[in-house]
Amino acid sequence: MNPVLAIFAKNPTPGQVKTRLTPPLTPRQAAELYHCMLVDTVTRVKALGVESIIFHDGGAGFFRSAFPGMRLVPQAGACLGTRLENAFDVMAELGYRERVVIGTDAPDLPLPFIGQSFELLASGTGAVFGPSEDGGYYLVGIRGGYGTLFKEVPWSGPQVLSTSLDRAQESGLQAGLLPSWYDVDSFEDLARPGLTDLASQAPLTRDFVREYAGGRPMAAISA
Question: How far is CA 75 from the centre of its chain?
Fold first, then answer.
């Protein structure tokens, strides 16, 4: 059974994505930034050489046009926990054992981190998390069942990871942790030097941020 990587994504619709960045970004600018992060993410993970699925929130038309040939599955569920459960169930039904989910909020996430998640799962680790600096996680992977892993988690709060680790223990899942990284959630996150570095692995995101800054340091703009 081959490993599989799922990407949770939304349609880049103004007013519905990256709303925490508006203002100072306009809804259209925030949607453009999200589009850049999405394309960078989908493009970059191809280098991993693993099968990928986009679990989309919103209609499939945009994704069929932007990423022709990729398997598309609609997200299902009222909350993130239910959507994750459904996604892992779908991937299991398709015959995958090592299943990893990422979002699009870390467009320059080092690919070796994702590769390490598959290695941990293949070695028998039951669940893998990629800790984010805000107390959540940028990646979650499962080898078999998920138990209560996604039940009663305070999503979008600083206790997401710690609660999830508790749920893993309750479910008898050995949990592995990847190196910490950051999500681009707030306007201040755009000031991170790695996003605008010429060597950035997320070129569309980099170019958007550099163009928005107009040559000025983002740190000065966000201060």
Answer: 14
Judge whether 127 lies within some domain.
yes
The CATH number given to whatever domain includes residue 84 is 3.90.550.10
Q: Among the listed ranges 40-49, 108-117, 180-189, which one has the minimum average pLDDT value?
A: 180-189
Strand residue runs (E) in the chain: 4-10, 51-57, 71-74, 99-102, 127-131, 137-142, 175-177
Give the range of the structural domain holding residue 76, as residue numbers without chain letter: 4-184
Tell me the pLDDT band of 217, cut-offs 50, 70 and 90.
low
What global pTM score does this model have? 0.94
Cα 33 to the chain's mean position, in Å?
15
Instruction: Name the strand (E) or helix (H) holding 111.
Output: helix 111-122
Nearest-angstrom CA–CA distance, 77 and 173: 24
Tokens 């993410």 locate to 41
Give the whole-angstrom CA distance, residue 157 versus residue 7.
21
Residue 203 within a domain: no
Q: Return the percent helix, strand and coil in the chain, to nearest 5.
A: 40, 15, 40
Q: Which two three-digit tokens encode residue 141?
A: 């992977």
Number of Cβ atoms within 10 Å of the Cβ of 182: 17
Q: Determine how many CB atoms are found less than 10 A away from the CB of residue 69.
A: 6
> Nearest-5° angle of CA 2, CA 59, CA 37?
65
Domains contained in the chain, number: 1
- Alpha carbon dihedral 147, 153, 159, 162, in 10-degree steps, equals -10
